[in-house]
């Protein structure tokens, strides 16, 4: 037997119960791989920019596939680039257990969002293999295509298509900022298969688990090791376009104006007040884009574009805000003489995580002496869409000050190690029969 000492593992020394004593996570290796993956970026480190189907995205894919193959997993890539790396179980006909996350990064983002869930899943499998364990049920790592909405203004393209809520025809209508359509871009990137083959058949997987950084400050502030997600808030996106007549900033008197920036400002404040009036503690609304044209100091704004994100764990409550918003926007536009249009881009359903998986994750953490807390995910993830077709759950690890989507994003090797260990123990438990 030949030993490879390239990665002399620094094994986590923790008090373990007998059944878990053999799960040892090589946290340095995970840390090295996260750092290496971060180098496939269009931004300078520590920032990471990795946009779907760009050369850096393709290089990152090749790196991940090389790691999967090195670990003895068999790799399949579907027609849009979702990557599946399989550890075949003794009963390959049983629906596999899936675990994974995404590896794209929005502009000037960080190194841990999504990637922890892929490289963590890989380390979980390697740690189980090292114990001599053989699963009955196969375990499959899923590296999703394009969780971030950067290129096509729609998040979770990969998991939406696996779930089936994004059909091939609608996907082909997506275009990027250069006006190129999804189908052309994916084919240019080397993914040419039949789009209708992407959707998973019912019962394809038995469970889905996603390990992810919290992207909020709660776990770190409370000193809790891991968060077990009970539900995922559902996002909705609305685009509001406003058109007025513009004019000279000096010559047109105030009563004569239909300034679209003023209408946009009123709508922005309306969104804030509607959210507190009709929403609850878990309702959040953001006007993330507010652009005015023509964009000159001496010109009255005549085009305004707002991109609005409204989320809630209760779809009905969120939808009530959406309905009221449309009516009230129309009123504001009429009063201000502005031509306005609201376009609903997406209105997704929230997801409840599987009670069985929540209990199992909690049990694993307890047995390993890892502290946990149940929590809601206000950010959405690929798990939101997977949860609609397979019992699913998420495990959060803390991150520095809750930072995410920025270069300062950080989760320590120790924090990641605990999350990976809980995932490994849960995968073992789920795959043993
Ligand atoms: Zn993410």
Describe this protein with a few key phrases:
433 residues, alpha/beta, Aminopeptidase, Alpha-Beta Plaits, 9-stranded mixed sheet, 12 helices, 15 strands, disordered N terminus
* Ligand catalogue: zinc ion
Which percent band covers the strand fraction? 15-25%
State mean pLDDT (0 to 100 scale): 94
What's the helical proportion of residues?
25-40%
- Strand count: 15
Q: Helix/strand-derived class? A: alpha/beta
* Low-pLDDT residue intervals, each spanning 5 or more residues: 1-9, 13-18
Explain what you see.
This protein is an alpha/beta fold. The chain has 2 domains: 18-232 and 351-431, Zn peptidases (Aminopeptidase); 234-347, Alpha-Beta Plaits (2-Layer Sandwich). The chain has helices at residues 27-38, 55-70, 115-130, 157-163, 168-172, 182-188, 218-222, 260-278, 315-336, 355-367, 382-386, 413-431, and strands at residues 48-50, 74-77, 83-87, 96-102, 105-109, 139-144, 205-213, 226-232, 234-243, 284-293, 303-312, 339-347, 351-352, 372-377, 392-397. Strands 2, 3, 4, 6, 7, 8, 13, 14 and 15 form a 9-stranded mixed β-sheet that branches. Strand 2 (74-77) and strand 3 form a beta hairpin. It is elongated. The protein starts with 26 loop residues before the first helix and ends with a helix. Zinc ion (ZN) binds at residues 102, 113-114, 147, 212, 381. Zinc ion is lined by residues 102, 113-114, 147, 212, 381.
């Amino acid at each position: 037997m030949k030993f490879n000492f390239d990665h002399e593992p620094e094994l986590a020394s923790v008090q373990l119960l007998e059944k878990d004593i053999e799960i040892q996570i090589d946290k340095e290796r995970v840390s090295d791989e996260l750092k290496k993956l971060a180098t496939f970026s269009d931004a300078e480190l520590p920032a990471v920019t990795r946009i779907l189907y760009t050369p850096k995205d393709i290089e990152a894919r090749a790196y991940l596939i090389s790691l999967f193959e090195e670990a003895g997993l068999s790799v399949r890539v579907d027609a849009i680039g979702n990557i599946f790396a399989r550890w075949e179980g003794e009963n390959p006909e049983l629906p596999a257990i899936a675990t994974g996350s995404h590896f794209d990064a929005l502009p000037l983002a960080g190194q841990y969002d999504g990637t922890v869930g892929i490289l963590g899943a890989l380390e979980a499998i390697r740690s189980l293999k090292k114990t001599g364990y053989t699963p009955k049920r196969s375990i499959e790592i899923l590296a999703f295509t394009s969780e971030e909405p950067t290129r096509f203004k729609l998040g979770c393209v990969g998991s939406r298509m696996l779930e089936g809520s994004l059909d091939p025809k609608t996907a082909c209508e997506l275009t990027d900022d250069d006006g190129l359509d999804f189908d052309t871009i994916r084919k240019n990137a080397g993914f040419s298969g039949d789009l209708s083959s992407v959707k998973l058949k019912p019962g394809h997987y038995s469970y889905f688990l996603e390990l992810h950084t919290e992207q909020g400050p709660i776990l770190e502030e409370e000193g809790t090791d891991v968060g077990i997600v009970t539900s995922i808030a559902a996002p909705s996106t609305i685009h509001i376009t406003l058109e007025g007549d513009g004019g000279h900033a000096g010559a047109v008197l105030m009563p004569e104006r239909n300034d679209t920036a003023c209408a946009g400002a009123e709508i922005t404040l309306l969104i804030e007040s509607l959210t507190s009036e009709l929403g609850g503690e878990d309702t959040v609304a953001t006007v993330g884009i507010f652009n005015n044209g023509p964009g000159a100091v001496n010109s009255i704004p005549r085009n305004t574009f707002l991109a609005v994100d409204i989320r809630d764990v209760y779809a009905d409550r969120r939808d009530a805000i959406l309905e009221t918003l449309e009516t009230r926007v129309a009123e504001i536009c009429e009063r201000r003489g502005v031509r306005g249009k609201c376009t609903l881009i997406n209105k997704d359903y929230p997801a409840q995580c599987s009670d069985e998986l929540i209990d199992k994750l909690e049990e694993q953490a307890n047995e390993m002496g890892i502290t946990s807390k149940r929590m809601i995910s206000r950010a959405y993830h690929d798990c939101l869409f997977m949860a609609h077709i397979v019992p699913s759950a998420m495990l959060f690890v803390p991150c520095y000050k809750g930072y995410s989507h920025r270069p300062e994003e950080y989760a320590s090797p120790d924090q990641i190690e605990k999350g990976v260990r809980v995932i490994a123990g849960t995968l073992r438990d789920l795959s043993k029969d």
